[in-house]
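Let's practice the habit of predicting before peeking. Look at the sequence and jot down your guess about where helices and strands might fall. Then scroll down.
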Amino acid sequence: MAFSSLSIAQEMSVQQGDSTIEVQASEGIEWHRDRQVYIAIGDAVAVRDDLTVYADRLLAHYRSEEDREDIYKVEAVGQVRIVTENGEEIFGDHAIYFLEEGSLEVTGDDLRYVSAEETVTARDSLEYEENADGPGPIAIARGNAFVDRANGDQIRGDVITAYFEDTANGETENGDSENGGSEMQEAEAVGNVEVENDTVFASGEQGVYYAHNETATLEGNVKVTRGNNQLNGDRAEINMRTGVSRLLATEGQGVSGLISPDEEDDTSGSSGNNDNAPESQ
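Done guessing? Here is the structure:
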């Protein structure tokens, strides 16, 4: 009589390329040979060199490679928490991690990506790409995406793509000392975009936030509000640190503003070209 599954242990080591994945579970690990999957049940943990996955249940899918099983996908179910090598944490209800590509997608309620300086949330999904081209990982938030920074700046959009710089070598691109981690460099937002802090609020159809100098550019039906003043145009450059906003006119699109006489700030406006674009201070 042949068995398609077998309970083998509460911990095990399996191969993924040149790396080893350590898997533990409080209630045991099942081997489903016909399905080519190991299932870790109860407080399950999978540890690879640069990533640790916690969940109620883990499914490690493998391919038979000559004399070994090679793990290519890990599925996490229930109370998912993922910790990267730099200490960032990702939370959700369900996750699929493709090990060869170094990418994962997390879905469910209370989706969060938490780093030292930012918290990224989403309604539909969070995607994380650790092997992306560039200086660090990429996080993609889909559906009511929101980035909340420690400095008070906030970014909203239908979809936000945040680009991070790996600072594990002890120094950021700006030369600042770091003990390790990832630092957000910029965030690209698309759809119903808003950027704000205690000084300024602005909205548009798409935009980019630059973390290193705390500035943002917005495009498409842009509105910038500061106090009782509002400026409208097609494109804006906003300094979130100083509160200075500059609207730039495009061909066939002027700029307009509503200036409150109660405001003490010096604000000038024009519907001319880019050289005469209004600036709010």
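How did you do? The longest strand covers residues 68-84.
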